[in-house]
UniProtKB/TrEMBL annotation:
<keyword id="KW-1133">Transmembrane helix</keyword>
<feature type="transmembrane region" description="Helical">
    <location>
        <begin position="247"/>
        <end position="270"/>
    </location>
</feature>
<dbReference type="InterPro" id="IPR010390">
    <property type="entry name" value="ABC-2_transporter-like"/>
</dbReference>
<keyword id="KW-0472">Membrane</keyword>
<feature type="transmembrane region" description="Helical">
    <location>
        <begin position="157"/>
        <end position="184"/>
    </location>
</feature>
<dbReference type="Pfam" id="PF06182">
    <property type="entry name" value="ABC2_membrane_6"/>
</dbReference>
<feature type="transmembrane region" description="Helical">
    <location>
        <begin position="213"/>
        <end position="235"/>
    </location>
</feature>
<feature type="transmembrane region" description="Helical">
    <location>
        <begin position="133"/>
        <end position="151"/>
    </location>
</feature>
<protein>
    <submittedName>
        <fullName>ABC-2 family transporter protein</fullName>
    </submittedName>
</protein>
<keyword id="KW-0812">Transmembrane</keyword>
<feature type="transmembrane region" description="Helical">
    <location>
        <begin position="38"/>
        <end position="62"/>
    </location>
</feature>
<feature type="transmembrane region" description="Helical">
    <location>
        <begin position="74"/>
        <end position="94"/>
    </location>
</feature>
Length: 278
């Protein structure tokens, strides 16, 4: 029994250790050019601030959008930027799966003693993406302080769970979108429309969209659980779209379910993968 537990623990921890080691290797390589890394990180941060600046302009001009004020709008935008930026850093490189298939480099990954998903996710790992995470986190913290939130022990404990769950949902969406390239090699743009387009969708209150869009973003591609439902929970606001209030507690469960779907899609794609022969 002890041996079984040890093997199970090792099978779970080994991919994590391999991911950290490979990511750290890329970070050390990029750190050899500190000026370039600093400038790229700064440009990434400015881009993130520009995106959230657009939200600031919209709310500053309109005052309220669907009953949500400036601080509440920035909270939603900050959470969206943080979740998608974290997912982009952790799992964003899977979007180039089609390139690995065309060049035959996926075949090389399959014979290495490290899970191919870990290798792909850490390929050209870019710490400059912190330039998106830091501004998003800063805006989120400021917005949380500015919003009229009735903090309780439950909300304080739930906040990191919601943020981690939102990031997990984004990571799962990235993997599911990438798996399309097992069958359609040029499907990267279609996948990007879901990932990067999903971020644009979640940066504003879902109440501004038609009800059919909100339902699709809740029950088909659950982007609503990245920012919208967590924001409703934190703000104690009724859902203006008319969906059940119990959904605001479902974000962690949606994250687990979607990660399971992503893992199944990845395994399905690998089983049906045929080498390029190159």
């Amino acid at each position: 029994m002890a041996d079984l537990l040890a093997r199970t623990r090792e099978s779970v921890l080994w991919p994590v250790r391999a991911y950290v080691l490979l990511a750290w290797t890329w970070c050390r390589a990029l750190a050899q050019y500190p000026a370039s890394l600093a400038m790229m990180t700064l440009s990434t941060a400015l881009g993130a601030f520009a995106e959230m600046g657009a939200v600031f302009v919209v709310f500053g001009h309109a005052g309220e959008v669907s009953g949500f004020g400036m601080a509440e709008g920035l909270l939603i935008a900050g959470m969206a930027t943080t979740a998608f930026a974290c997912a982009d850093m952790v799992m964003g490189m899977v979007e180039v799966l089609g390139r690995h298939i065309r060049t035959g480099s996926l075949d090389v990954m399959l014979v290495r003693p490290v899970p191919p998903l870990v290798q792909m996710a850490t390929d050209r790992f870019a710490p400059r993406r912190l330039g998106r995470i830091v501004p998003g986190s800063a805006v989120t913290v400021v917005a949380l302080a500015a919003c009229d939130i009735d903090w309780s022990v439950g909300k304080v404990l739930m906040l990191p769970v919601l943020l981690v769950s939102a990031t997990a949902i984004c990571c799962a969406i990235w993997v599911i979108g990438a798996c399309l390239q097992f069958f359609v090699a040029d499907a990267r743009e279609a996948a990007n429309s879901i990932t990067y387009g999903g971020q644009a969708l979640t940066e504003y209150p879902m109440a501004i969209y038609p009800k059919n869009v909100v339902r699709a973003a809740t029950f088909v591609l659950p982007l609503a659980f990245v920012t919208w439902q967590p924001a409703l929970y934190l703000l104690d606001r009724p859902d203006p779209t008319g969906l059940p209030e119990s959904l605001r507690f479902a974000t962690p469960f949606v994250a687990v379910a979607l990660c399971a779907v992503a893992a199944a899609c990845w395994r399905f794609g690998l089983r049906h993968y045929r080498s390029t022969g190159s």
